[in-house]
Amino acid sequence: MLWACIRLPQLALDTVLRRLPEPESAFALVAGPVHLRSLHAVNATAARAGLKPGMRLSAARALRADLAVAEHDPESDARALRFLAAWAYRHSSRVSAQWPGAIVLEAGASFRLFGPWPRFEARLREELATLGYSHRIALAPTPRAALAFAGLRDGYVAMDADAMRAALARVPVRRAGLPDDSGERLHRMGVRTLGALRALPRDGLRRRFGGVLLDHLDRLYGDIDDPLACYAPPDHFDERIELGYEVESRQALLFPLRRLIGDLATYLSVRDGGVQRFVLRLEHESGHSDVAVGLLAAEREPAMLFELTRNRLEQAALPQPVVAVRLLARELPPFVPAARDLFEQRPAHALPWPQLRERLRARLGDAAVHRVDCDPDPRPERAWRRVAADAPASRAAPPARPPRPAWLLPAPTPLRDEARIVSGPERLESGWWDGADARRDYYVVETAHGRRAWVFAAPGERDGWMLHGWFA
To answer: 440 by DSSP, 3-state: which?
Structure first.
């Protein structure tokens, strides 16, 4: 097997920067007590101004007065790592996030699907850049070796066990990720590399460092199996973005909304599923307000989901300023892509019917879009009914009847033209139960101008025809 390790050196910082509309401006994460705030991480713009982690916030403000800051949230880092594990799950069935700030995935089995490692690596880097995370990637036959290589150098590749062992022998013990503080202790003892460490007697190492160090070395070199805590995708999506300031405009909510929808689409592609209902929760200082988004069929196209949610948001009222945005999706049915012709003739700017239907519902309201269903009532004006767009279709087939006109008039009108009978009569007697009794003899006639009409008269009469519809 071959394992790829993705190191995330700026996980906490990238998790916040990807949510900001202007991530290039000076920014830092802060931590510590209120009266002793210090910088936890800084972006490149702040670093060029002389700011660095560990600096007091007051000193940083003196160097850069326009510095934007946010509180470091370790729980947010954990959620981001789980999200990236879900993203990696679309590329491999064996993914682990058991080491802080890193994702490992079994890559050898994915070469058949994604191509050789250079192409697969380029795909991983492109998608990580799109998601907004800086990274370092390495490949090795064991997950711990890949983890160690990614911590040393970006892009390192060891395709077989011999190359891996030769490279590991040169790794400094202080940068090999050894358990606890054993790497620092070994360095002070004069043991500088893993090769020198492996040359020492195992019994002496066991007495001084315990069995944990030896187990780590054996798993690092692949001498024993390394059981990993593999990632399993959850059955729901729940993501939250804290804005850090009060937002009173819907326009200002579109950027975090786009990021949330993009993360939802990534999650759905991992599950190979879609979403049919989800809730956009707008959190206020006191309470929250929900914007429900419902679709008639499962979808996962990010552009369409964003457009629908934006339209729903524009119709919603903001009773209070918004301080955080949360997206919750618990109904995740299987996704069935729409069938398309190989040589599709639809114009590039035209929308498929399912997407157009959802856009109309979002813009005009659910009640403005409906379907037409059959009704067993024999009266032509009542032989159909309007039903909700998401209502199940009637299972009962309509009764067999003679041909009906494609154009039924809203109300019958007298026929003024001369006409000859083509077929008929067809007698309809119905409506005695609701007070709208109808007794009519219907005919198909052809007018002097060659048009076919659907007319009726009282039973037994052929004068005073009433026009009820036109045939195409």
So the answer is: strand
Given this model, what pLDDT does residue 406 score? Answer: 77
Residue 65 identity (one-letter amino acid): A
Structure confidence by residue, pLDDT tens digits, 190-225: 999 999 999 999 999 999 998 999 999 999 999 999
Measuring CA to CA, which residue among 396, 232, 405, 250 is closest to residue 312?
A: 250
Radius of gyration of the CA atoms of the chain, in A: 34
Task: Please report the pLDDT score of residue 43 as a whole number.
Answer: 92
* Burial class of residue 213 (count of CB atoms within 10 Å of its CB; 0-12, 13-18, 19+): buried
Give the helix/strand (H/E) hosting 281. strand 275-283
3-state secondary structure 122-168: HHHHHHHHHHCCCCEEEEECCHHHHHHHHHHCCCCECCCHHHHHHHH
DSSP E strand stretches across 158-247? 237-247
- Quote the Cα angle for 352-358-361, to 5°: 140
Q: Give rounded-to-5 percent helix, strand, coil for the chain.
A: 35, 30, 35
The residues of the chain scoring below 70 in pLDDT are 336-356, 358-359, 362-363, 365-366, 376, 389-399, 432, 435, 460, 462-463
Q: Which long-range contacts (CB under 8 A, 24 or more apart) does 241-245 make?
A: 241/19, 241/324, 241/325, 241/326, 242/323, 242/324, 243/322, 243/323, 243/324, 243/325, 244/70, 245/323
Beta carbons within 8 Å of 90's beta carbon, 6+ residues apart: 266, 269, 270
